[in-house]
Amino acid sequence: MPTTTIAAEKLSKSFSGTPLFADLSFTAARGLVAVGGSNGSGKTTLLKILAGLLRPSGGRVRVQPEVGPELTPAERRLAVGWAGPDLALYGELTAEENLRFFRIAGGRDASLAEIRQRLIEVGLAEEAMRRRVEEYSTGMKQRLRIAFARLFDPAILVLDEPMIGLDPEGRETIARAIAAARKTGTVILASNDERDFVEPEQRIELGNGRRTADGRR
């Protein structure tokens, strides 16, 4: 299966002159990239830069298919799926309506059967699919965020604290989805919980303006 490579090239990010990280480089085409570090070390900021949601202070992110040219910013929006605690979906809409809206906005088919299958894969029951999202529990919202991140079958998943708010059953469901995604593409996962890092191919540690990037462990 063709792969898509994501490459961070000498990334840096500063706020008010204080660097969160600098000269950060790594390349991934498949597997799990674990991003660790203390609170405030820049994990969420790094993931948003990789997802194209924030601009770095220096360096660049390149997304390159195995065949063809580097992806444009517009193409990257469908090739890179992102979910994080601050991802807010439309509370007045149901889960089905949210995913159908974003599929149509992305120019893709939005059949109800496909949307329901995607929600089943993250453990949302049929009754829950038709409830307004503003009525959801924290764990249900988190499952929906993961479904949103996978909505366009992206080659690269960027997940910030994907297990937050989940019960043991929810953790197992999302862990299975992550395990499947890393076999065919790249999952970049930030967490404060070491249980979320299952034999990562790469590991990045942030903190005190520094970073380390290790190879396979």
Task: Please tell me about this protein's structure.
This protein is α/β, with parallel strands linked by helices and 217 residues long. The chain has one domain (4-214): P-loop containing nucleotide triphosphate hydrolases (Rossmann fold, 3-Layer(aba) Sandwich), CATH 3.40.50. The protein is 32% helix and 29% strand. The strands form 2 sheets. The protein has a 6-stranded mixed sheet with strand order 5-6-7-3-8-9. Strands 2-1-4 form a 3-stranded antiparallel sheet, covered by helices on one side. The mean pLDDT is 92.
Write the layout of secondary structure elements.
Blueprint: E1 4-15, E2 18-28, E3 31-37, H1 43-50, E4 58-65, H2 73-79, E5 80-83, H3 95-105, H4 112-121, H5 126-129, H6 138-149, E6 156-160, H7 168-184, E7 186-190, E8 202-207, E9 210-214
Parallel strand pairs: 3-7, 3-8, 5-6, 6-7
Antiparallel strand pairs: 1-2, 1-4, 8-9
Helix pairs in contact: 3-4
- Alpha-beta content class: alpha/beta
Which homologous superfamily in CATH is the superfamily?
Answer: P-loop containing nucleotide triphosphate hydrolases
> What is the CATH architecture term?
3-Layer(aba) Sandwich
Query: What is the straight-line distance between the termini?
Result: 24 Å
How are the strands of the largest sheet arranged? 5-6-7-3-8-9
Low-confidence stretches: none
- Which CATH C-level class is it? Alpha Beta
**How many separate structural domains?**
1
Taken in chain order, the helices and strands follow as EEEHEHEHHHHEHEEE
Helix fraction, binned, reads 25-40%
The CATH topology, please?
A: Rossmann fold
